[in-house]
């Protein structure tokens, strides 16, 4: 339904380059990238707020590149929600319908339906500034969906919310989508949103769309080391492969498939297990390692290790740190499955 073809936009220091992708009807498409990757610029080009230097945008086969925002049939929710501060929640949601001169009874029915699904029926008489961030986001989504847009454009919809509210809204959005059946193009830097909501994901780095695919596929098979690093493959190891074995700085690592010559592999820190005893089970890659340092990450702790001449990072829980008595200088066993080793 949405087709973006070779969109480019140059600012002095930032270049959005040849962005090409499409969104299918009913899909939740995520553009995932770090801060400054150009996600907002891309969304604003699609919304019609910024004109691209080159490239085209099609909606249901029609070229909308030159159309003003209001003629595109898209609803754009910016990061700050942009609710009308002087209007009640009801009037905010009803706004687009009133502009389109929809009969009053129909407006009331539509606002009622949307506010019930979104859980904001009790807020209809309130002004936006009296609402919490999560409530404002629900109102912004209701207002956008009221006019039944072809496509909903969401810019970091949950970025300004606390962790609990964000988790709840991610879950609820799945239900809203089922009940209301919209198509969404959603930009975010959050892996949680990408994994929780995305049907497909496009990874954006430095103004380029570097990989597009099903969420699971992109997270398990990044196309390049750059994408892998962004997606959390912290351990990148270079070595010489022969058959299923990679020799790297004193370690012999079993690979998931045969390879040959100089290659690089990536392993996620959450796929590395630490133990006091040599690990049995199906983990063929088991090595003795020394703890180099610990870093607090909130719920988890990053353990920096050295095995042979290879540096590794592993994520463990705080209770594992205590149980294993992890501290700099301590020797432990590290283990990871061959299937956790990703060959680039
Ligand atoms: N009008 C402008 N003039 C010059 N540079 C701009 C303009 N608008 C955006 N940029 C630059 O484009 C780059 C991408 O910005 P953008 O807001 O799209 O990033 P983002 O991926 O959405 O990041 P964030 O999540 O932090 O908003 C930034 O370096 C920004 O400074």
Automatic annotation (TrEMBL):
<dbReference type="InterPro" id="IPR003439">
    <property type="entry name" value="ABC_transporter-like_ATP-bd"/>
</dbReference>
<dbReference type="GO" id="GO:1901238">
    <property type="term" value="F:ABC-type tungstate transporter activity"/>
</dbReference>
<dbReference type="InterPro" id="IPR017871">
    <property type="entry name" value="ABC_transporter-like_CS"/>
</dbReference>
<keyword id="KW-0500">Molybdenum</keyword>
<comment type="similarity">
    <text>Belongs to the ABC transporter superfamily. Sulfate/tungstate importer (TC 3.A.1.6) family.</text>
</comment>
<dbReference type="InterPro" id="IPR050093">
    <property type="entry name" value="ABC_SmlMolc_Importer"/>
</dbReference>
<dbReference type="InterPro" id="IPR004606">
    <property type="entry name" value="Mop_domain"/>
</dbReference>
<protein>
    <recommendedName>
        <fullName>Molybdate/tungstate import ATP-binding protein WtpC</fullName>
        <ecNumber>7.3.2.6</ecNumber>
    </recommendedName>
</protein>
<dbReference type="GO" id="GO:0005524">
    <property type="term" value="F:ATP binding"/>
</dbReference>
<keyword id="KW-0067">ATP-binding</keyword>
<dbReference type="InterPro" id="IPR008995">
    <property type="entry name" value="Mo/tungstate-bd_C_term_dom"/>
</dbReference>
<feature type="domain" description="ABC transporter">
    <location>
        <begin position="2"/>
        <end position="231"/>
    </location>
</feature>
<dbReference type="Pfam" id="PF00005">
    <property type="entry name" value="ABC_tran"/>
</dbReference>
<dbReference type="GO" id="GO:0005886">
    <property type="term" value="C:plasma membrane"/>
</dbReference>
<dbReference type="Pfam" id="PF03459">
    <property type="entry name" value="TOBE"/>
</dbReference>
<comment type="subunit">
    <text>The complex is composed of two ATP-binding proteins (WtpC), two transmembrane proteins (WtpB) and a solute-binding protein (WtpA).</text>
</comment>
<keyword id="KW-0547">Nucleotide-binding</keyword>
<dbReference type="InterPro" id="IPR053428">
    <property type="entry name" value="Molybdate/tungstate_ABC-ATPase"/>
</dbReference>
<feature type="domain" description="Mop">
    <location>
        <begin position="280"/>
        <end position="344"/>
    </location>
</feature>
<dbReference type="GO" id="GO:0015689">
    <property type="term" value="P:molybdate ion transport"/>
</dbReference>
<dbReference type="InterPro" id="IPR005116">
    <property type="entry name" value="Transp-assoc_OB_typ1"/>
</dbReference>
<dbReference type="InterPro" id="IPR027417">
    <property type="entry name" value="P-loop_NTPase"/>
</dbReference>
<dbReference type="GO" id="GO:0016887">
    <property type="term" value="F:ATP hydrolysis activity"/>
</dbReference>
<keyword id="KW-0813">Transport</keyword>
<comment type="function">
    <text>Part of the ABC transporter complex WtpABC involved in molybdate/tungstate import. Responsible for energy coupling to the transport system.</text>
</comment>
<dbReference type="InterPro" id="IPR003593">
    <property type="entry name" value="AAA+_ATPase"/>
</dbReference>
């Amino acid at each position: 339904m949405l087709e973006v073809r070779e969109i480019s936009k140059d600012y002095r220091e930032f270049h959005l380059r040849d962005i090409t992708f499409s969104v299918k009807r009913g899909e939740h498409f995520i553009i995932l990238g770090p801060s400054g990757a150009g996600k907002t610029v891309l969304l604003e080009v699609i919304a019609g707020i910024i004109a691209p230097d080159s490239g085209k945008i099609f909606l249901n086969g029609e070229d909308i590149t030159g159309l003003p925002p209001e003629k595109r049939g898209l609803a754009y929710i910016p990061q700050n929600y942009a609710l009308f501060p002087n209007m009640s929640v009801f009037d905010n949601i009803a706004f687009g319908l009133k502009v389109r001169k929809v009969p009053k009874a129909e407006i009331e029915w539509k606002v009622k339906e949307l506010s019930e699904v979104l859980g904001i029926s009790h807020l209809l008489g309130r002004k936006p500034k009296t609402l919490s961030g999560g409530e404002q986001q629900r109102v912004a989504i209701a207002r956008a969906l009221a006019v039944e847009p072809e496509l909903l454009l969401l810019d970091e919809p949950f970025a300004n919310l606390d962790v609990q509210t964000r988790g709840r809204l991610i879950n609820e959005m799945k239900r809203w989508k089922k009940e209301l059946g919209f198509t969404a193009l959603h930009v975010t830097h959050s892996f949680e949103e990408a994994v929780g909501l995305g049907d497909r994901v496009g990874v954006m780095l430095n103004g380029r769309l570097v990989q597009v695919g099903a969420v699971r596929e992109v997270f398990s098979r990044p196309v390049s080391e750059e994408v892998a690093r962004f997606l959390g493959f912290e351990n990148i190891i270079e070595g010489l492969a022969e058959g299923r074995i990679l020799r790297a700085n004193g370690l012999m690592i079993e690979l998931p498939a045969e390879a040959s010559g100089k290659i690089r592999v990536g392993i996620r820190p959450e796929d590395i297990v630490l133990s006091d005893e040599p690990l049995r089970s199906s983990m063929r890659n088991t090595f003795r390692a020394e703890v180099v340092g610990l870093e607090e990450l909130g719920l988890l702790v990053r353990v920096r290790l050295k095995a042979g001449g290879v540096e590794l990072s592993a994520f463990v829980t705080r209770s594992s740190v205590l149980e294993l008595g992890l501290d700099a200088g301590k020797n432990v066993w590290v283990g990871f499955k061959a299937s956790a080793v990703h060959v680039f």
